[in-house]
Sequence to fold (241 residues):
Amino acid sequence: MTIQVFENEEQVALAGAALIAAELLQDPYTVLGLPTGSTPIGIYRELIRMFENGVISFAEASAFNLDEYIGLEPDHEQSYSYFLHSNFIDHVNFRAENIRLVQGIAVNANEECEQYEQEITDAGGIDLQLLGIGRNGHIGFNEPAAWFEKTTHVVDLAADTIAANSRFFANEDEVPRQAISMGIGTIMDAEKIVLAATGSSKAEAIRAMCKGRIDPACQASILQIHPNVTILLDPAAAALI
Ligand code: PGA
Fold:
């Protein structure tokens, strides 16, 4: 685990974008794993800028996303599909056929999970998985639990996650209670992982992830045994390590 602490959120965003750009320059056919949340917005903004400046291209790259709420149409403003399209995908030159976003309104969610997992395998696996982290140490929607889920699966959201995400909805009752998430095994199979976190609300999760025991109570702690993880932090998120 390589931990890098930057002066501020903007520097974290630049560093995250630089790592993804380096991957794309080295391999235009890179398979990216994309997260949602406020943390990656700056990284996506920098990637769009690099694309507009002709530094990088996504023409041959492909992308999967980390998770999606169950029950929201892809064009619902709070769906993760809508988020990724409006904050990133629609501003660069991915080919539509190279984008596979998990469907939260699949008729059979369990079948969608199996199919999604298979498509990741068929694409040769994720080359670079970008991650945020929840205040409770979740990655994707892998919530604190007694075990680590291996593959893409249906999740009941933790109360803390529903509370944290309610800021995007009219009220907490509107936050979906279930989601589909890549499993910890899916994430750990990625060749490289880049996790970004900023702000003091993430400090305890970062401590548990980096310094705690590997424990499914902090799902991100499993990253300690991944061979290629880079953690990008601002001073507030790094305060307890
Ligand atoms: P955030 O979410 O980037 O909006 O803080 C991260 C997460 O919950 O994984």
User: Anything to note?
Assistant: The longest helix spans residues 9-26. Residues 37-39, 132-134 surround 2-phosphoglycolic acid (CB under 6 Å). The chain is about 30% helix and 15% strand.
